[in-house]
Amino acid sequence: MAKKSEIKITDHAGNTVFVNMTDIKTHRLNQWQGWFCGLGMENFNILNSGRMHGGVCKTGRELGNVYTSFKMNTEPTKCDKPSCHCGSDILIPKAKTEKEFAKLMKHQINSRKVKYENVIAVDGHFQMRKDNTIAIDWNVGKRCNYNCSYCPDNVHDKKSPHISLSKFLTALNNIEKNIPRDKNLKVTFTGGEPTFNPDFFPFVSLLKNKYKERITIFTNTNGSHTKEYLDALNKYSTLLISVHFEFTNVKRLIEKIRYLVKVRQQEQRYDRKTLLYVKIMVTPTTLQNAKELFFELTHFRTHVFDLRVNLEPIVDKEDDYKLISYSDDQKNIIRKINEHDRLLRTHFETIFKKSSTKKLFRSKEFIERTFANVDV
Ligand code: SF4
Ligand code: SF4
């Protein structure tokens, strides 16, 4: 999930500035055909078959297969795509020339004003590189209990076999052989629905117990597993619970989130590595339902670490991850709600950092008042 001002952009004079994903997309900066891209150098993607690429775009050479062998890229690859759509691909460092790409790796910041038309390098792995981290996007299989209309057949089905624990361990063994021992790991699990694999939880707990502070785990889930399971998983992994109105029982989901938030509050979980997100998938026809759910869920929050909620527009995975068709008004509403929530969280976090007691609470009324200004 792209954070505020996460992406460093550089102009030809060496001036740098940090922008966010929305800036990149709305200013149409995401067109880097002919640029040198670092995909597969600090990150890799594992498909449900085990095949590996440096990015969702699959540009350049295939890295190998996680169950047999693979090799990460050591050099940048020339981009041959007219535009770069997927969020994780946009974060990958890239530059107009090889020389500029080499400079990117040196963490230079030289804050000045940068005109978008003069940008020659973009780097969303800046912080990750400073933290000595490798990012892995890992699709653990197609099997899913839902059948969302916007989800292509090559992403989900109801019959694919689950990956066994021994296969997970073979993959881990190969990963460990290919990355330096001192690296930290940021692993994002997707599917299908990972949580219905009976060996998924044992593997995640094994990973966390093995790597401890050196690993950050994210799990994308549709939230249909039991509240007890999700809570146990949330102790090891940040949960990114996606709401799909075609299949989600919204009433039951609300009760589940209420439970998860309550346990987090009781246990005062303030760990940035195990956060709780709800991503409300919003189509042009479900915007009103999404808005209502957004407000209902955010009322559970009394603390910045309790819960984060955002509206997630749908992209067409079979058409280069392009946004499906929303009107400009609808895009504005989505942007406005997300921006409002981000500002509120930033406000909470700033105060939280200064708080010695770690007790930062806001009443339901305060949150209602703050959101009352959102004109949707
Ligand atoms: S599409 Fe994006 S991630 Fe893929 S090579 Fe081009 S710039 Fe890199
Ligand atoms: S829950 Fe996710 S993986 Fe399953 S069908 Fe829906 S979008 Fe696809």
Q: How would you sum up this structure, described in words?
A:
This protein has 376 residues and is α/β, with parallel strands linked by helices. The protein has 2 domains: 7-38 and 76-126, no CATH class; 129-371, TIM Barrel. It has helices at 21-26, 87-91, 98-104, 126-130, 165-178, 200-211, 227-234, 250-266, 287-298, 328-354, 364-371, and strands at residues 7-11, 16-19, 36-37, 43-46, 51-53, 64-65, 77-78, 94-95, 119-123, 133-139, 184-190, 215-221, 238-243, 276-282, 308-313, 315-316, 322-323. Strands 6-5-4-10-11-12-13-14-15 form a 9-stranded mixed beta sheet. Helix 7 (227-234) packs across helix 8. The protein is globular, with a radius of gyration of 21 Å. 34% of the residues are buried. One iron/sulfur cluster binds next to loops. The site of one iron/sulfur cluster has 12 residues, from loops.
Q: Kindly report the spatial arrangement of strands forming the biggest sheet.
A: 6-5-4-10-11-12-13-14-15
End-to-end distance:
24 Å
**Low-confidence parts:** 355-376
Order of helices and strands: EEHEEEEEHEHEHEHEHEHEHEHEEEHH
What distinguishing features does this structure have?
alpha/beta; globular; 11 helices; 376 residues; disordered C terminus; TIM Barrel; binds iron/sulfur cluster; 2 domains
Short description:
The protein is 32% helix and 19% strand.
Q: Which helices and strands appear, and what pairs or packs with what?
A:
Blueprint: E1 7-11, E2 16-19, H1 21-26, E3 36-37, E4 43-46, E5 51-53, E6 64-65, E7 77-78, H2 87-91, E8 94-95, H3 98-104, E9 119-123, H4 126-130, E10 133-139, H5 165-178, E11 184-190, H6 200-211, E12 215-221, H7 227-234, E13 238-243, H8 250-266, E14 276-282, H9 287-298, E15 308-313, E16 315-316, E17 322-323, H10 328-354, H11 364-371
Parallel strand pairs: 4-10, 10-11, 11-12, 12-13, 13-14, 14-15
Antiparallel strand pairs: 1-2, 1-9, 3-7, 3-8, 4-5, 5-6, 8-9, 16-17
One iron/sulfur cluster binds at residues 32, 37, 39, 55, 57, 59, 79, 81, 84, 89, 92, 94.
